[in-house]
Every structure is written in C-alpha cells, then in structure tokens.
Specification:
Blueprint (H helix, E strand, L loop, with lengths): L17 E4 L12 H9 L4 E8 L5 E3 L33 H4 L25 H15 L5 E6 L13 H14 L6 E5 L2 H10 L4 E6 L5 H8 L5 E4 L6 H9 L3 E2 L7 H10 L3 E4 L9
Parallel strand pairs: 1-2, 1-9, 2-4, 4-5, 5-6, 6-7, 7-8
Antiparallel strand pairs: 2-3
Helix pairs in contact: 1-3, 4-5
C-alpha cells in the first residue's frame, strides 16, 4: 500500500502537545486492535500508542500481554479460558495464524465498562499501519506518529520474546517496509531494546518508560544516552522533573492519564503530551 505511505523525511518534529491514544482507545474499544486505532484517529490524536510482541514465526503483532489474557480475551470457540490455562497461550510459542483465531473483543472487561464489545483479533503491526494510513488518507487527517512499545524484560528472553537485538531488527524491518520511520517512537521499560535501537538506528525517536522511584539521573545513567522522550507514570510527575527533562532536551510525556481534571493539571504544569485510554477527552483539553 505504498500510496498510503507518509512522505519520507529524515526528521519530523513531534507535536507541540502530543495527544496519545493508549493501546488505541482502550477505554472505548478492545485494546491494541485496528478498530481501537481508528477510533483514536477519529478522536483527533496526534500519536497512536501500541504494544508489540513477536509470534513463534517471527511476525510483529500487537498485544500488551505475552499470552492470551483470560481477563478480557476468549478461546477461538468463544469459550472462557480456564483458570488453569491462564498463562498457557504464549504468543511467542504460537504461529501468528493461531494467535489470530482468539477473540480479544467480545468479553466484558470490568476495568473498562464503557468498552464497546465486538469480535476482534490481535493484528499484525503491518496491518495496523496499513489500516491507519489508509484511514488518514480517506478522511484527510493529519499524519500521526506511532509510539510502539517493545514488551520485553531480561527474564522473558527466549520464553516470551526474542532477545533485544532480534526484537528490534524485526520491528524496524516492518517500520521501514511501511516507510514510516520519521513518524515512529520506540518506547520501552527495558533499556536493553532502546540501547540496541539507539546504536543501530540513532535517527529513530526513543521514549524511556518509567514506573520506578530511582529518579531521572539514575534512569538515564542506566539507559546510557538521552532519549527523545522521558515517559513516567503520571503520579511521578513534578514541576522539578519537567524542568530537569526540558533542560536536558527531552520531552516529558506521562502515562496513563484517564481523568480530565488530572489531564488539565498536568498540561498546566508543562508536560509535553499525555497518554490516555480515553482519547475522546483530548477535545476538552
């Protein structure tokens, strides 16, 4: 679908204020699915945020969990996943053709009562990009960024995902095939994947996800370079953290903010964007 590729530029500036739809629009539609991404585009987001995993046959797909999650996902038959099998269906140990048969949108998810139920599947990253680019063109929307998280950690290597270099190689191959490199941010809690990316592809934007209490200095020391974005859990944001990130040339984009008043408060404090499960709230910012 080359006609839907955005124009290739070596560097594209991030939005002045980045409105990111978390897992598409998780509060409204099944997370990390094509419908959720299109819903986010309809809501006027500037960035689609998503999670990436790798299947047994080396394909990059969207999923937050490394396995089919019984809390809000169903067997291909539509039946519940038995408690004993809670972590049985590991994505990295199944070919994508099998993963795609599981229903990830028809089960009521109590954490997100507004979520519209629909039959849905875990899509390939390539399909998500094609669908989003076609939708942008069809609706005459502004080009968005893609904030893609590598779901990995040292204890999961070879079990839930490939080692960092292979993970990054597979991810970047899809990004380059689709011609969206200038519009991509790779984010992770795992500094290893970001280090590999920075070493091999220093032009691709990076975001360090943080939920620990080590502080900015320690986290950057562990990473070994200055990322494009510092992305902490929203409760860790303070005026001094915003000041420190800005002084070092980074943007600060907190996750995951679902309360409008809290979104407004953080915007007034001076954050550079917000990641939310409810991108429909952005219109009120």
């Amino acid at each position: 679908m080359s006609q839907n590729k955005p124009t290739q530029q070596s560097s594209v500036a991030l939005p002045a204020f980045d409105k990111e739809g978390h897992r598409g629009a998780r509060g409204l539609l099944p997370e990390n699915t094509v419908p959720a991404m299109l819903k986010a585009l309809d809501s006027g987001v500037t960035t689609l945020e998503m999670d990436a995993h790798i299947s047994q046959d080396g394909q990059v797909l969207l999923s937050h969990d490394p396995f089919i999650n019984p809390e809000h996902e169903l067997l291909p038959s539509g039946a519940e996943i038995p408690a004993a099998d809670a972590k049985k269906y590991v994505l990295y140990q199944m070919p994508y053709s099998q993963i795609r048969t599981f229903d990830v949108g028809s089960k009521y998810y109590s954490k997100f009562p507004e979520q519209q139920l629909m039959k849905a599947y875990k899509p390939l990253l390539s399909e998500v990009i094609d669908s989003a680019q076609a939708y942008i063109k069809e609706k005459g929307l502004a080009q968005v960024f893609y904030n893609i998280e590598t779901k990995s950690k040292p204890s999961g290597d070879g079990i839930y995902h490939p080692a960092p270099e292979e993970f990054i190689d597979k991810l970047v191959a899809v990004i380059d095939e689709k011609g969206i490199r200038p519009y991509v941010i790779i984010q992770s809690f795992d500094p290893r994947t970001l280090k590999v990316l920075h070493q091999k592809h220093p032009d691709i934007k990076t975001a360090l996800l943080v939920e620990n209490l080590k502080g900015l200095e320690k986290n950057l020391e562990q990473l070994g370079f200055t990322p494009t974005i510092y992305s902490p859990y929203f409760k860790l944001v303070t005026p001094s953290l915003i000041k420190a990130t800005h002084e070092q040339g980074m943007k600060l984009v907190p996750w995951t903010v679902n309360d409008l008043k809290e979104m407004q408060r953080l915007k007034q404090l001076g954050v550079d964007g917000i990641i939310s499960d409810y991108p429909n709230l952005f219109s009120q910012l």
